[in-house]
TrEMBL record:
Protein name: histidine kinase
The enzyme's E.C. designation: 2.7.13.3
Catalytic activity field: ATP + protein L-histidine = ADP + protein N-phospho-L-histidine
PROSITE patterns documented for this protein: HIS_KIN (PS50109), RESPONSE_REGULATORY (PS50110)
PANTHER family the UniProt entry points to: HYBRID SIGNAL TRANSDUCTION HISTIDINE KINASE C, TWO-COMPONENT HISTIDINE KINASE
The Response regulatory domain, residue ranges: 106-219
SMART domains cross-referenced by the UniProt entry: HATPase_c (SM00387), REC (SM00448)
Superkingdom in the source lineage: Bacteria
Organism: candidate division CSSED10-310 bacterium
């Protein structure tokens, strides 16, 4: 790698001195709901989707995640992402014609993972929307009833109640059944989402433009 190439990449290394990972388990550790060792899962807990989400978002940015590990000594994760300077084209510099008045739009974002919630909230706020981010299903149901938002983004993986049951309640309540609800999650269960009344279904990782396009498309239908 030349000096010029090196300046165009950002590299982050994270290391620990933990139990380590056996070499034969490394190829599958980024799969959904997989952990390195059943006994480790029982002792240390965890859902098994953290590394999957990390790798998905890094790949979305055009980067890579590499792992080196020695059993009983620890592991080192290396994240490499490109440092891109985007040049605006003439068309991009022209103001867009807004299809909706975003200043009057309230989006309720229901996401238990704080990092993912922060990312999606940033997308929405930067695009001009008002956003209420919630991590609790019960709280979300109360706020939806109270605020009557314009659109809901829901990840059914919640800590307190079943997110699918939450969607069912949203779509069975007279005050909220009209609100378009977009499912944004790592689990592909489109048939269930459609059956329960979801307006749209996005599989993470979701690129910013795809996410915002889904929001605007479903708002224009209301």
């Amino acid at each position: 790698m030349t000096d010029e190439d090196r300046t165009k990449k950002i590299e982050v290394q994270i290391a620990d001195t933990g139990i380590g990972i056996r070499p034969e388990l490394i190829p599958t550790m980024f799969e959904k709901f997989r952990q390195g060792d059943g006994s480790a899962t029982r002792e240390y807990g965890g859902t098994g989707i953290g590394l999957t989400i990390v790798k998905s978002f890094i790949q979305m940015l055009g980067g890579t995640v590499d792992v080196k590990s020695v059993v009983a000594k620890g592991s080192q994760f290396t994240i490499t992402i490109p440092h891109l300077e985007v040049e605006k084209t003439e068309s991009e510099e022209k103001p867009e014609v807004a299809l909706i008045n975003k200043e009057n739009i309230l989006v309720v974002l229901i996401e238990a993972d704080a990092h993912i919630a922060r990312l999606f909230k940033t997308y929405l706020v930067q695009d001009g929307y008002n956003v209420l981010a919630l991590s609790s299903g019960k709280e979300a149901l109360d706020e939806i009833t109270r605020l009557n938002p314009n659109i809901i983004c829901l990840n059914p993986i919640l800590p307190d109640i079943n997110g699918w049951e939450l969607l069912k309640k949203i779509k069975s309540h007279e005050s909220s059944l009209h609100i378009p609800t977009i499912i944004v999650t790592v689990v592909d269960n489109r048939a269930r989402g459609k059956k329960l009344g979801a307006a749209d279904y996005l599989i993470m990782p979701v690129q910013r433009n795809v996410f915002l396009k889904a929001i605007q498309k479903n708002l224009s239908r209301t």
